[in-house]
Amino acid sequence: MTSMKRSISSAFTIAEMEARKIRHDSTELWTRLVQPALWLLVFGEVLNHIKDLSPNGFSYLQFITPGVLAQSVLFVSIFYGITVVWERDVGLLTKLLSTPSPRMSIIIGKSLAAGVRGLFQAIMIFSLALIIGVNLRFDILDIAGVLIVIVLFAMCFSSLSMLLASFLKTRDKMMGIGQALTMPLFFASNAIYPVSLMPTWLQYISLCNPLSYVVDAIRAMLLTGNYANLPIDITVLMFSTVLFISLASISIKRLVD
Amino acid sequence: MIVRAVEVEGLTKIYRSYIKSVDAIRFSVEEGEIFGLLGPNGAGKTTTIKMITTLTRPTAGAISVFGIDCLKYPETVRMMMGYVPQAVSVDVDLTGYENLLIFSKLFFVNKEARETRISNALDYMGLTDRAHDLVKQYSGGMMRRLEIAQAIVNRPRMLFLDEPTIGLDPASRRHVWEHIKQLRKEFGTTIFITTHDMNEADELCDRIAIMDSGRIAVSGTPAELKRTVGGEVITLKIPSQTQVESLPEEMGRITSNAQGSMTISTEKGDEAIPKILQYLKKMEIDVESISLSKPTLDDVFMKYTKQRISETEDHRKVRSERRSFMRRTR
After folding, report:
1. What percent of chain B has pLDDT over 70?
2. Do A21 and B93 touch (CB under 8 A)?
3. A90 vs B98: CB contact, 8 Å cut-off?
4. Which residue, among A116, A115, A122, A185, has the nearest Cα to A155 in the 3D structure?
5. In what order do the strands lie in the sheet with B215-220?
6. Is B209 helix (H, G, I), strand (E, B) or coil?
7. Across the interface, do A253 and B325 touch by the CB < 8 Å criterion?
8. Which value does ipTM take for this structure?
């Protein structure tokens, strides 16, 4: 086998490992749906009545659905590093790293697994949005595009989380940093309100926030059908994903050192 | 030139630029032998094993496994070895079979060979009938056996076991020992273990090295090392009024003789006892009882490290961690 083939096969094996675990026990997936459901059913429904929040003739519920989608995937992936720390604590990570599989494959495999979890979230939130009658563009190509963006996004933030884990090394600290990151990322993005309503300083911050690009891409495909920004969105996302995966692959060995 | 299974030269690991965990050690492991690295916790055993298994980069020194440089070609070395770390290293949320499947894939075992290898490993470790149960339902001994099974699906030439029986009850421990010995016998696998358990070292190892504060204090076969702490001691009970002043040289040397209790220091106690009995019979001295005590590796350890290798706090911690881990996952 060539080394390229080996790397790919290892990555999929790691992802398969995670998928098999979910198959044995999927409780976690379902409990993670509670939060996005609340955002849609409570927050979305209530604020739906405020006209200012409904830009370009879309209802607020329509506007917030892509935001909630992205946010729920963010939550799944930003805490992914905790799993890796846990695996280090028990000895599983040491064993994984002692196999001939390249480190990068291990990171890619694990981030792919986060992608699978993200996909599940996305599908469930889509279904929920359908049930409560949110009007979205259900075009096959758009949906496929959204799913690809979701997977990339989950890979991006789960590898960032693994990168952080390799420096913080404990579950407590990871919990802390996860909490400290999610809300600022969420609020400084266009997920639950339009950027135009933000104070100017926050608008600048939102420009550096990968979440904004993700939400923008999803919104373009699900809602507006305006693909003008899509190339920038995807480029930023791809770049961050490759960057975080590479950094995490180099630093993961710090966890077992 | 003979290629050694492991060859380590001037190996040093310094943590945070001042903690010398391993200090310029040098040793080698021959192909096909069971080699034991002994020492109290914190002696640097795990760090040494991690450097050989390419998990940690040494600060200085050279390591080769079957002649391959561990620093230059870590992935080639990883391909040839199996490693069972001290902590639980199987995924408890998967079945036993799945654990082996994933690892055989990570070791690039051919698709055609995979199923045979897995069922052999399961069979070999006595886990076939529980293969499709989740590992969280396994006992501690079964988990350990699965960990070893996982490390042998790729038929490694070299197997590293870090404290292989820590946290196991005596029966499971014996079970694991039998499997380790059988592995070497059937596949000729070279086995490297670390342990703090002197019985384990005595039972399993062809050669041992005693490590203390990052250095190798002494190495050799268990028998050689025991000889270095002096001979065996024979204790006799004889009627208190009788006196024995001396013994012929080949029987040993009387070290004390008071109130009917006599101790004799000798080289080979088993052979000396009949001679001594015969000699005393000729002198018409009735022997009431006789006992022989042989030096243990514990005595060897005592001599070279100036401390008893009893169960330390840290070992108790690892053991209780392994146990509570299992309780938690149930």
Report:
1. 92
2. yes
3. no
4. A115
5. B81-84, B158-162, B190-195, B34-38, B207-212, B215-220
6. strand
7. no
8. 0.86
Q: How high is the pLDDT of residue A89?
A: 86
Report pLDDT digits (tens) over B15-52.
887 888 899 999 999 999 999 999 887 888 989 999 99
Q: B76 contacts in A (CB within 8 Å)? A: 100
Yes or no, beta carbons of A98 and B105 under 8 Å apart: no
Kindly determine whether residue A1 and residue B108, on different chains, have CB atoms separated by under 8 Å.
yes
> Which site among B56, B81, B91, B328 would you substitute to test the A interface, given the most A Cβ atoms closer than 10 Å to its Cβ?
B91
Average pLDDT for residues B186-205, to the nearest whole number? 91
- Alpha-carbon distances, residue B59 vs A164, B20, B77, B134, B215 (angstroms): 25, 10, 19, 41, 15
Per-residue pLDDT, B312: 55
Interface test with B, best of A17, A89, A105 (most B CBs within 10 A): A17
pLDDT (tens digit per residue) in A198-227: 899 999 988 888 899 999 999 999 888 888
Rounded to whole angstroms, the Cα distance separating A137 from A251 reads: 41
User: Which residues neighbour B244 within 8 Å (Cβ) at sequence distance 6 or greater?
Assistant: B238, B254, B257, B262, B280, B283, B285
B35: tokens are 């080699």
Minimal C-alpha gap between A41 and chain B (Å):
33
Chain A residues within an 8 Å CB radius of B94: 17, 20-21, 24
Structure tokens at A7: 């790397």
Q: Is the pLDDT of residue B325 over 80?
A: no
As a whole number of angstroms, the distance between CA A192 and CA A61 comes to 10
Q: Distances from the Cα of B279 to the Cαs of B25, B98, B276, in angstroms?
A: 49, 67, 5
Q: For chain A, which residues score pLDDT lower than 70? A: 1, 54-55
**Which tokens hold the place of A15?**
């992802």
Q: Residue B201: pLDDT above 70?
A: yes
Q: Are B38 and B192 in contact (CB under 8 A)?
A: no
- From residue A167, give the alpha-carbon distance in Å to each of A206, A240, A255, B239: 26, 19, 8, 73
Q: What does B170-203 look like in DSSP terms, one character per residue?
A: HHHHHHHHHHHHHHHHHH--EEEEEES-HHHHHH
Nearest to A143 by CA among A131, A127, A154: A127
Mean pLDDT, chain B, whole residue set: 87
Contacts with B169 (C-beta within 8 Å, 6 or more apart), sequence order: B140, B141
- Dist. CA A93–CA B47, nearest whole Å: 16
Strands across the sheet containing B68-69: B19-29, B6-15, B60-65, B68-69
The pLDDT score that the predictor gives to residue B313 is 55
Q: Does any CB of chain A come closer than 8 Å to the CB of residue B86?
A: yes
Q: Which of A44, A74, A77 is nearest to A60 (CA)?
A: A44
**pLDDT in the model for residue B81:** 92
What is the average per-residue pLDDT within B70-84?
92
